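> @MW can you paste both from yesterday?
MW: sure, first one:
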Amino acid sequence: MKDGLRSYAIKRAEQYLLRKDVPRLHMLMIVTATGAAGFLFSFALLHLGVETMWIRYPVAVAMAYSVFLLLLRLWLAYQSAILAGDRGGGAGVADLLDIPVDQIADGLLQLGTDQAGDIGSGAGIADIFDLDEIVFLIVAVVAIIGALAASLYIVYMAPALFAEVLVDGFVVSCLYRRLRKGEPRHWIYGAVRRTWIPALVTVLLLGLAGYAMQTLAPTANSIGDVCRYLLG
């Protein structure tokens, strides 16, 4: 019952965001900023002496993931301020979304404690590179494309992710505060649950890409060095 009511609330919030907002554009901006943070972290790690790409890239992505969660929190604060101002708090937002306030307040009272633990031609290329180099080049390109696809998947599922963050972080929290009893489920559980797999895939694929590129060009310690090696 609790999960059913919460799922209903999330669905209503998703419909509201798709009707009134541009969640995928917001997520694209967040993912782009996260990627920029990852590049900056990688640059900083390189200058700190971490020259091995298959180590540096995954570490930079893991660090950037914390920036992603921070940006989600800022988005939640922005949306909460707008909705609270327009509708006078979580109960007003629940009315706006056609969510049964009393049922959610009763049915989700223990949700936080119950779920807190979840958590060119071939011949031409062959003239320039040998077969091993071609294989590692293909692996690196495919891995990078896969990492980009994982990021785009997060953009695609943005409405559902934002809806869950909004429900857990604002609507339900306001209802709990009104009851002054128990603790609501923190929004970060849903955010991590929906994004940890794409994030892990990105970490693994960029690690694989770093390994392939450094095997292809052993003296390289960045993508720029690899490009210069290929062009030279």
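MW: second:
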Amino acid sequence: MKYRKLKGWKYQMVEPFAITLCFAPPSNITSEFIRLDIKGELTLKQYYAWDGASGPCPDTPNIMKGSLVHDALYQLMRLGFLSSSYRKQADMELRRICVESGMNKICAGLVYWGCRVFCGLATWPRPKTPIYRIP
């Protein structure tokens, strides 16, 4: 996984990233920067941007991959591509990936429960922002 720090968003992918999740949607999902297929393969395209860990969690090496995947899944929910009924599974993926990345299970559990308690609104659709055109 390669990324750069970025103004506006905190991080941006330098190259594509793929990971197999422990769940899969009933049909393939494709957005501008995210693809999730029916086998659970999540692919993030080059230039995908995310904001790292949320709340009091620092952006340590053992949370970066988990925060990337978690942010992408929540974004799919906000955009209406993935049902918000997958929220718990997205939170469980965050915990699993953090442990696989070297975070101890107790800290990963705290990250998981922080998401379960405080992150529900992050899956709600955002109001559409206007698109401007210059003639």
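> thanks! The first helix runs from residue 61 to 78.
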